Fold this sequence. Notes:
alpha+beta; 2 domains; 11-stranded mixed β-sheet
Amino acid sequence: MLPNNSCKVYLSGAMQLTCAYQVKSVISRQNKRVLKMMSEISSAVKNAIENFIVPKDVGFGTLISPVMIEANFKDNQWSDLQILPYGDITIPPTAKVFHYAQEIFEGLKAYKSPNGEALLFRPEQNAKRFNYSAKRMAMPETPEEMFLTACKTITMLSKRFIPEASGSSLYIRPFMFATEATLGIKPSSEFKFMVLASPSGSYFKAGGLNVFIERSAIRACPGGVGTAKTGGNYAASLLSSTKAIDHGCQQTLWLDAINHQKIEEMSGMNFMCIKNNKIITPELTDTILSGITRASVIELAKTEGYEVIERTIEIDELIDGVKSGEITEAFACGTAAIITPIEKFIEENGISYELPKLDTPISLKLRSHLLDIQEGRKEGPAGWSQIVD
Ligand SMILES: Cc1ncc(COP(=O)(O)O)c(C=O)c1O
């Protein structure tokens, strides 16, 4: 049984490591633990890592690192973490996740520094959001220590596969799903937690985004699960994404569920725009995912002297602002997107609103600053970029 403030790690059933959780010293001790684990991994995992070949063009989220980490929740307690070679898992067809979508996930990145170190960006924020999502979806929380140890271990095991080009990274995917094999509609009593990693290039191809204005479907409604990172929100966005693609767009811009007026966010990233040199972003509500990149961009922009305003932005204000030239930039921000400028917004009837092409856009300055911190070229606020070496 794992008390909330400690975790054990099993190395393919071979050795255990137990650690007490203390906030201040957790990073270096976690790194030591990860290093110890690295020296004692099973030969199956070792072989999988040694034989793994990284192609030149890795894409995003398609190439999967040859290792995975898992733990199981049963009888009200988490098992120890296990490192396994990446492969299929066996789950009964009655597992509740297949029927009632009790599932949550996270996405974070490890970057390669100029010195060849692996750098994680604010991983404890993902651990916190994972537990927030777990609570909302009636799932057990994972001790922060367990979540972070799993992310750091997979980072170390996959370090050789982290692409070096700026904007590339190891995309890390922790997730948890209901495994109880019964069909009754009630919270599962059993869950599986897993972490995968994917050596990845840029999420978007070079150039600005085309964004589809979704005026009929909605992503999230008040009192719903829009603030949780749960698969159903993404399933709900897929039909609109096919409409977006038909209109030459890469993302959907979601409006509020009640009046279809207030801008909320995009399907996998938050929204910001620049009006009269001020950065404006929708204030967080119970229908918007609280992005770690969003929070980081707000903090960085303020330190760079920009005024940042979190408030309601209606779609009419956006369109009028783009037409009048008051809104000079708009951009997506998220772990996958980093900061990606928007080129134009497109309506279902084909009408589009194009942003001007600027010589020195603020969004790209912010992107460089953020990436410099994430990729270890510049020092950021304490604890943002964490070496896993
Ligand atoms: C719906 C949604 N909004 C916003 C974000 C941006 O969040 P973050 O910056 O933490 O990646 C994401 C990505 O996780 C997302 O899926």
